Hints:
This protein is α/β, with parallel strands linked by helices. The chain is 48% helix and 14% strand.
Amino acid sequence: MSDLDYIFNTLLANTIKQxxxxxxQLQMAYKVKEVLDKNDILIAEAGTGIGKSLAYLIxxxxxxKEDRRIIISTYTKTLQNQLLSSDIPLAKSVLGSPVVANxxxxxxxxxxxxxxxxxxxxxxxxxxxxxxxxxxxxxxKTTRTGLRSEAEEExxxxxxxxxGRGRNTCIGKLCKERPNCYYEYARRKTYSSQxxxxxxxxxxxxxxxxxxVLPKYDAVxxxxxxxxxxxxxxxxxxxxxxxxxxxxxxxxxxxxxxxxKPVLEATHDAGEDFFNSIKRKFISPSTRIKQPVDIKTxxxxxxxxxxxxxxxxxxxxxxxxxxxxxxxxxxxKAVKTTIKRFISLKDxxxxxxxxTNKNWIxxxxxxxxxxxxxxxxxxxxxxxxxxxxxxxxxxxxxxxxIKEKLGxxxxxxxYLSSPFDYMNNSILYIPQDGPDPRNDRYPEFITNxxxxxxxxxxxxxxxxxxxxxxxxxxxxxxxYRLPDYNLLKQGETSRDILLERFRxxxxxxxxxxxxxxQGVDVPGDSLISVIITRLPFxxxxxxxxxxxxxxxxxxxxxxxxxxxxxxxxxxxKQGFGRLIRKKTDYGMVAILDTRIRKKYYGKFFLxxxxxxxxxxxxxxxxxxxxx
Length: 627
């Protein structure tokens, strides 16, 4: 069975009630089939409502044979859950396929039985952690997965770093708990699957460690592909924090190794001296490092070397204990290596920066350009690759930005606009005039406009910000202006709980920053208004952004037009896309940043989003909702 017309327009139509033929979905399915068969690369922008999941799942399942395996990588858990619980079962049912699909989670998501038992037996818990400990003991008696997300359904677990399976804490086959290991059980299921659903983070974690995390695969589909560059960058970089060392020393202490206590104390003190010196020298929350860091490291490095030597030379009572000590020694050496590379700025093609807050100090590095790395590892023609998203182009049919950032030099593209009727079901409100976002009057302007708009829609509004400072200020203002409304703000609780309260609350207004611009799906009357408070340009002084801008300028390119503007356009498209999620949805998107009307680059933003009715006055917005 391979006739996609018959599958979509007959078999699928007979399976789904009130099925609607979508020509765009079929076009995408044929393109996916083509690149899978030809071992090619496809970049597809599929507007909201096309049904892109089935458009790639059905040809992918048809392409699979007994000896083939395909990875589907997403950015959000929401889409992973949708694929596993809804879309894949539907595709299998339509095709009569026995294909096996499972989700692969990173090892850090699983409880480590060995570490948990060791810490329990050594009593290495503080008094305030006892409630958490009791909850975990009860949970472990019933859990079949060992997953952190399941354990944290009743609240966050602060001791997870001490009991979870860390990236560098597993001792593998030498572990006595291996037969009952949650991660190994999940891994066996993954290896028996032909479709593996994972997220971009785990995909690139697998890539960065030489393919030791995921089984070998024959094709990959990246959904929500607009996030690939950011995720890949984080995995090609390095980081170490003051808590990395603190947690490591605390774990070593529980081993009760003879004569190691003075070395642990000396290493702890040297580590504190080093990180405190960093914090005193670099007082800003985020500081880019352009010259080698002149801070004394002799004591820290000497103590780390001594500690690693003791761990390596300590006689073990069993092979398991020997592997555990060797693992700890390797982690001690890795801390030294990472710090050494950081303070010397070893890689000239990376950017280095320090982040600090009240207690946390992070040394971070990242490559300035990952296109060559991705071109040689992911988009090298070895296997077929599909990238899809509702927001890939910066202008209809213009894929240049994502191709350049990801190092894609070949393949094919397809642009499929949304089938939804934006012109009749939505209105775009841009005030006729307003202050520049850098003006001190801007928070008051946002508050005034928001108050008027929220009263028209009776709440049911997302208020999207690019700045936590502005969000907090507007939230405080609205508490007084809208006392009868249910104001929800990012940071008060988890995103899932906020969304639940928003969906079912009356007169709800949700104020959110980056996490609410994308991957959030609230169809129906619960959300009829999305207010964008500022055009979503990244802060140019962010260390990574600054380095990338400098790099483009060295190449004598216009960094604003070739990088900053395209990136902001993609983010705006994501924010705009929160409004219309299904055919019967309706409502307003308000862009309160009047630079979109006044500046020359405003036209590029406007041409990138679906055409809607437009309004420049509050009365026009009222008329739209009355009609």
